[in-house]
Design brief:
The complex is a heterodimer. Helices cover about 30% and strands about 25% of the residues of chain A. Chain A is α+β, with helices and mostly antiparallel strands. Chain A has a nine-stranded antiparallel sheet with strand order 13-19-18-17-16-15-14-22-21, sandwiched between helices. In chain A, strands 6-5-4-7 form a four-stranded antiparallel sheet, with no helix packed on it. In chain A, strands 1-2-20 form a three-stranded antiparallel sheet. The two termini of chain A are about 30 Å apart. Chain B is about 20% helix and about 45% strand.
């Protein structure tokens, strides 16, 4: 079928969702155009292209290839990864350094800012109306790109609001991530893990602040860790410290309830604020000293007291400010996506802080971890279960009616479905093209 | 049996415990400070300052073997079956710890969640003599597709 905006609007009710949004390939294609083609999508971090000529390639949605480059003057660009001549992908390696980009087919060559440098045998174009100086013969820039504290976002929509307006109050979590560095800056470090998910991309996002699942889905690993800890002698401090990373994932309903959830226009949300399941991780003394030296006691306390668990920047990115890692979801098809996990070094902090981040990423987010596969198992079963015709609807009723509208944000209980309602309000607005008409959530 | 044959036999026995699978016995092949590493890069220098697919010490092995048989681990509802083949076993001298360094090639078919997957690459074992046999101080599993997106891996390879 072909969906009208009214048809699409009917798929999202205030407290329930139609199953076709997870299973219909046509809706997936519309999402790629109307959500992923309009929203600010996370591209990468400037520290991935530190030197002139450095490049990093990715896709902005399920198929459009783009690259982040740093030109000779040091400026960062986000360009379509397409030769201006026949359309071949110009760069087919994940990252590297180039003096210029030369197409493998006819040798058209471009500067790292995207401008055309030269083409071979140009005489053949004399008097054909073809103009080498025509800007369409440059590598085309993605409609807009902006950087916030080193994090590079781009959008295919020339009319999208500026990045900071779009992020709204969720900006605080980026600030907190960077402020946790004594030098106030982070840099990408320690590589990336790519985890293939046989499920719709939205199921991964919905899990981030779904605080009703950990004590069920992760019960086994929490119990395995606790059983092991119980066998340890009192003085096994190192073993205890390592195993104790896991039990917070089985925190009680009450603990999660108290973290609260905060939602924003455009679908962003986080759980935590005053506290989160990461709040009790020990602050290493040398790191604390570096922070106090940089910011003073009071500001340091303030930075550490802002504790969030996951912050979603809908639709592509989720960050853990307190742990310094982030995950990116890359949709592939209606029932397939890839989740990337990246880690960040806090500039000016002891190197052990990066090692802690990497340990965390590996234990929680790796395809071979004891947490990620149980989450993915649930997403895959939803993907399979929603083929059932027994019921066309999925509910999101928890604490419905209790969400408090604070003007620039909506706040609610930590175990509420506020996160679901927030992202699906945005989904509906993007999909029915309501943001473009100025009607906002 | 000469040393190479003894070592080959030991590697086969280890693979057998993974194929069974019997993690409770497998873990006993490792020294108390033993580690299991599966890098995500072809030329990854170390498991500490870069992310890895696996890097388990005794603590994580102990948690993992308990989780592996836990009735509430949904990802383990689908039993995993594997079949390892090990070849090209070579002795590469002794490292700074005095451990024997043994390299080999491996291929493992893994059946999980209605799907058969093929893994292949190199093993590097650091072995310590233990009576008539050995213990593993370190095992490095270098997959040929280490940097490709991976699906859930619920058992060691």
């Amino acid at each position: 079928m072909s969906y009208s905006n009214d048809d699409l609007a009917r798929l999202v009710e205030p407290n329930r969702l139609h199953r076709s949004i997870y299973t219909d390939a046509e809706i997936f294609e519309l999402e790629m155009e109307r959500i992923w083609g309009k929203a600010w999508i996370f591209i990468g971090h400037e520290s991935q292209v530190p030197n002139p000529g450095d490049f990093y390639t990715t896709n902005i949605n399920h198929r459009i290839p783009v690259m982040m480059t740093r030109d000779r003057q040091g400026e960062v660009h986000v360009l379509h990864n397409r030769c201006a001549h026949k359309g071949a992908k110009l760069v087919d390696t994940p990252c590297g350094n180039a003096r210029a980009f030369r197409c493998c087919y006819h040798g058209w060559t471009f500067n790292t800012d995207g401008s055309l440098l030269k083409i071979p045998n140009e005489g053949g174009y004399d008097n054909t109306g073809f103009d080498l100086k025509d800007p369409m013969n440059n590598i085309q820039k993605v409609a807009q790109h902006e950087t916030y504290r080193g994090f590079v976002f781009a959008t295919l929509d020339p009319d999208a609001p500026d990045l900071q307006t779009w992020m709204g109050g969720a900006l605080d979590c980026f600030d907190n991530l960077c402020d946790r560095a004594p030098e106030g800056e982070v840099e990408a470090a320690g590589g990336v893990l790519r985890y293939e998910h046989d499920c719709n991309w939205k199921l991964f996002l919905e899990n981030l602040n779904d605080t009703m699942h950990p004590m069920v889905t992760h019960q086994s690993v929490v119990q395995a860790a606790e059983d092991y800890i119980a066998t340890l002698p009192e003085d096994a401090v190192a073993q205890r410290a390592e195993a104790e990373i896991i039990p917070p994932f089985g925190a009680s309903f009450e603990v999660f309830e108290n973290t609260g959830i905060t939602g924003f226009k455009y679908g962003h949300h986080y759980d935590g604020g005053k506290t989160s399941i990461h709040a009790d991780y020990t602050v290493q003394p040398a790191y604390r000293d570096a922070m106090v030296a940089a910011y003073g006691e009071e500001r340091t306390r303030e930075i550490f007291s802002f504790n969030t668990h996951n912050t979603l920047y809908y639709p592509s990115l989720t960050i853990k400010s307190a742990v310094q890692n982030l995950r990116i979801v890359r949709p592939i098809a209606v029932n397939k996506c890839i989740v990337e996990t990246w880690s960040f070094r806090l500039k000016g902090a002891p190197e052990e802080m990066l090692q802690r981040t990497l340990l965390y990423s590996r234990l929680i987010n790796s395809s071979a971890s004891m947490v990620g596969p149980d989450d993915l198992e649930a997403y895959m079963r939803i993907q399979e279960g929603l083929q059932s015709t027994g019921d066309d609807w999925v509910e999101m009723c928890r604490q419905y009616g209790a969400d408090q509208d604070m003007g620039d944000r909506i706040v609610g209980g930590g175990t509420s479905d506020l996160d679901m309602r927030t992202q699906y309000t945005a989904w509906k607005n993007y999909m029915t093209e309501s943001y473009a008409h100025g009607e906002t959530a | 049996m000469n040393d190479v044959q003894k070592i080959e036999q030991f590697l086969y026995d280890e693979a057998d415990l993974l194929d069974n699978p019997d993690l409770d016995s497998w873990i006993n092949l490792y020294t108390e400070d033993g580690t299991y590493w599966m890098p995500v890069l072809e030329d990854q220098a170390d498991p500490i300052n870069h992310i890895s697919i696996f890097y388990d010490d005794r603590v994580m092995m102990e948690v993992r073997r308990r989780n592996f048989v836990h009735p509430r681990a949904a990802s383990k509802d689908h039993k995993v079956r594997s079949s390892h083949i090990i070849g090209n076993v070579r002795l590469n001298g002794v490292n700074d710890n005095g451990d024997l360094v043994v390299t080999s090639n491996f291929q493992a078919l893994v059946f999980y969640r209605s799907e058969q997957r093929a893994f292949g690459g190199k093993y590097e074992h650091h072995l310590v003599a233990d009576g008539d046999s050995y213990k593993i101080r370190h095992k490095k599993v270098s997959l040929i597709n280490c940097d490709a997106p991976q699906k859930s891996l619920t058992i060691y390879l």
